[in-house]
Amino acid sequence: MSDVIIVGGGASGLSLAQRLVANGSPTVTLVEAPDGPLRPPERTWCYWDADTDELDEAVGASWSRLRIHDADGGVITVDPSPLRYRMLRSTAYEHWVHSRLAGSPAARVVRATVDAVRDTPGGAAVECTAPDGRTLTLHARHVFDSRPLPALPPARTHLLQHFRGWFVRTDTDRFDPAVADLMDFRVPQPRHGLAFGYVLPLAPGHALVEYTEFSRAPLTRAAYESALGHYCREILKLGAFTVETAEQGVIPMTDARFPRRIGPAVSRIGTAGGATRPATGYTFAAVQRQSLAIAAALRDGRALAPRPHARRVLAMDAILLRALDTGRIDGPGFFTGLFRRVPPERLLRFLDGRTSLREEWGIGLRTPVGPMLRTAVELPFLPRRTHPVPRIKESHR
Length: 397
What we know:
Layout: E1 2-7, H1 11-23, E2 28-32, E3 44-50, E4 59-63, E5 65-69, E6 75-78, E7 83-89, H2 90-102, E8 107-111, E9 113-120, E10 123-129, E11 135-145, E12 158-170, E13 179-184, E14 194-203, E15 206-215, H3 221-235, E16 241-254, E17 261-263, E18 266-268, H4 284-299, H5 311-326, H6 331-341, H7 344-351, H8 357-364, H9 369-378
Parallel strand pairs: 1-2, 1-11, 2-8, 5-13, 11-18
Antiparallel strand pairs: 3-7, 4-7, 5-6, 9-10, 10-11, 12-15, 12-16, 13-14, 14-15, 17-18
InterPro entries: FAD/NAD-bd_sf
Protein name: Lycopene cyclase family protein
Pfam family, one: Lycopene_cycl
């Protein structure tokens, strides 16, 4: 019997396993899906942090400057020092975590398909099927489950951040490796929601280029490919290029309330536990904070996964999502306005949910106050409704 079982080897499961092993206290079993359709393809995760970071060994690239393009072609370039925007690939992060688990006698990794998680006297049981078809039942005092939810909780607003990206190589140098394009609103805007390009340069002739939308439904693969082709050829003017690999994902942007405890000994973590920032889709940094907090709670004899985002952050996000969904605010204008009017380091901390109430009040005064106030007044009277669940894969946001 382990002290802790972690279900799922994505960003949240790996992060929690590494953090618990680093603390050197509980015995940890990480249950990962075996090779096959349940094991997700390689993904990209991004976050911002200070110049020194414990994940440096796994980070594939980072940028000290960020660029925003408004819909009219204006350019905003910011330096959020001491923060850097960092990118890591899931395979590199998995290897980094597994090397630390392998060096700990208190940790083990089990490859199996999880069929059920249930409470038992004094803990919980995880019922699995091994790759050879054998049935396994694992027991622990605490279980942290990162699997995607079968259905999203009821919400007043439900948008999706959906995207497709190409890793491209160009015949000539087309990218500046020192600057990441965080939002490029020069792409055609959809009738509902907003769209932007996203460029992470890895070398002068190599980059991850993405097309992203915030809207109510994902696109077909053909529509993503068409949008990416237009962005690369007509807006970025890359000239001749080849697509090495592609990745695609969908992230919920919702004011749903995600329950963190689903049994006396079972908690949810990651997106299933509410770690995704509703208004931005960013998850990875919140997962790191959540893992640190869980490790501290277990050390102190508590097991509930702490709230990933403060209540006031979720309240602000609920207002913004509703204002975007109703069209009361112009999405591209809203985000470019923030980058023009708010100091970049403060703005990135705000997008990550790490600002003070005073800082958030100042940022709020730099948004369209009238539409936001109107939305805040009506929000408490709106019903929460269920929405279909798209196929959600962990992503870079």
